[in-house]
Amino acid sequence: SSSDSSAPGGQFDRRNELSIRFGGYGTGSKIVLVGEDEIAKGGPAFGVRFLSNLTPSIGFGFEVDRLDTTPNESTKLITNAITTTKLTSTELLAVFRIRFMQERFRPYLLAGAGVHHTRMTIDSRPRPGFIWTDTFTNETRSLVDSQKSGGALSLEFGFDHHLNESISLGAFCGWHFASEQTYDATAAGRRLGGSGVKGAFNGVMLG
Length: 207
Known about the structure:
- The protein has 1 helix and 12 strands, in the order E-E-E-E-E-E-E-E-E-E-E-H-E.
- It is an all-beta fold.
- The strands form 2 sheets. Strands 1, 2, 5, 6, 7, 8, 9, 10, 11 and 12 form a 10-stranded antiparallel sheet that branches. Strands 3-4 form a two-stranded antiparallel ribbon.
- It is elongated and about 70 Å long.
- The chain starts with a strand and ends with a strand.
């Protein structure tokens, strides 16, 4: 992360901070259709955070994070089919930070609460040698393509190292949670007997 922050240990510690965060996001959450498998593979993540320091150690603010994944191909979710699942989430959070003052090197703890907007997609096609029994074809079908919003939480620890009065670099590890929602099935998914996928998802952002 990089931030517009303050001089270490000096009078500028009460300045506002603007941080740009880059990293990766991974989720260990599972999805269940006929069988069970992970919802997605790890992907890129980035965010922007604004903090106002009430004291040199305590700050409040907000952040926006984009948590992306790469699709997961599974043969476990639907019998005799190859199913691709993907999850993408955007979060808007109010955040509270406690910073431990150690000259230029400053560890911190941060907690956030707010809302998420998440899109889930599930596509499936028959495995080689199999077909859809209702049409005797083997095309890829979109079974779920749904966007839902709900509550979100985050918990993060990290450190900032001040290079000068205005710029710092750091690293962080943050846990993110998106509340349970039901992601609706498409018409093709309903024809196969599905009504949607219900789940809450969590993962870790590193940067």
